[in-house]
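This part of the workshop introduces the protein records we will be handling. Each record describes a single protein and holds just a pair of labelled lines. Instead of coordinates, the fold is spelled out as a row of discrete tokens. To make this concrete, we reproduce a full record directly below:
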Amino acid sequence: MPKVVSIHSYRGGTGKSNFTANLATAVAMQGHRVAIVDTDLPSPGIHNLFGLEPEQTGKTLNSYLWSESSIEDAAYDIGDSLGIGEPGKLFLVPSSVKADDIARILKDGYDVRLMNDGFRNLVKALQLDFLFIDTHPGLSKETFLSIAISHVLILILRPDKQDYQGTAVTMDVARQLNVRKMLLAINKVHSKLNPDALKQKVEETYREPVAGIFPLSEDVVQLASEGVFCVQFPDHPVSQEFIKVAQRISEA
């Protein structure tokens, strides 16, 4: 049965899109058919990590939401460029980065029900094993939909008081929406923090498992979103942590 995995954070700046790109790629490398949908329509960006330039994307998620194309026509096969071999596949449905399109979304919004229909159509048309949803930070009716339909919800937080409080709010909402499985990922962890103690503290606080702890890495920062880290540095400890989380998602 295909799994919908939503990657969400209460605040921006947590590294959500980078996390989504690396985790989805790691899952695809395990031989699964995977697609990512960038639902962060007001501030899209995940396409940069895959080297997908705006001029290469004639159709986007916006095109589907405005009834200008099917959602599968806005799905780009990016697996070959990453060296993902069969049977694994990786697709990306980007959002438009055109200023006029972003302004239209901000002004008029969109029919949230179309998003749900689009997810279902995409899973069927591309015969997906996993659909990853890169959400817009914070809570809104759009993110409620992504959370509600998720088989797995991964909440990203930094070891920061604002993130702790925001994550608590998000988890309360997710529980009210009866999310089937929640996992936590702690990102940008300073080297002076004890990972084991941090993991224990977070799990005791939220009563949900921590799937991975990712250090604040200069190597990740230096890549500057110009590529998928786990592809370029497969033996790096950060990449190995993504592989571990990917395995956990595959078995969930």
About this structure: The domain at 3-251 is CATH 3.40.50.300 (Rossmann fold). The chain has a mean pLDDT of 95. The first strand starts at residue 3 and ends at 8.
